[in-house]
Amino acid sequence: MSYRASIAALILLTSVAPLSNAADAESGKELYHEVEIERTIRGIEYTDANCVTCHEASFYQRSDRKVTTYAKLEAFVEGCNTNLDVGWFPEDVSDVAAYLNREYYKFEK
């Protein structure tokens, strides 16, 4: 491969690579609303617990919320994923964080 072809390939790869890592808010919306797990939450047994079981829209709009950056948002979503054994892959966690950010938080990434 010539020097020019190598440079062109490198430029193409570096310009496309970030797109493949971009979180998909629409996919995150589906994941957020479709998850169902069996859990006891606050003493109540659920067979179809989901994100909204604990997190109503007002939860995300509180003035005293703990999530203050996009990085913290992703960390909190991962916390729910891990603690509740939801089973999302890392890209799913990123997608759900992107959805919540688009709908509620509006953080710069």
TrEMBL record:
Signal peptide (UniProt feature, chain positions): 1-22
SUPFAM superfamilies: Cytochrome c
Coiled-coil annotated residue ranges, if any: none
InterPro entries referenced in this protein's UniProt entry, alphabetically: Cyt_c-like_dom_sf (IPR036909)
Source organism superkingdom: Bacteria
GO terms of molecular function: electron transfer activity; heme binding
Keyword NADP: no
Keywords assigned by UniProt, alphabetized: Signal
Protein name stated in the entry: Cytochrome c domain-containing protein
Species: Neptuniibacter caesariensis
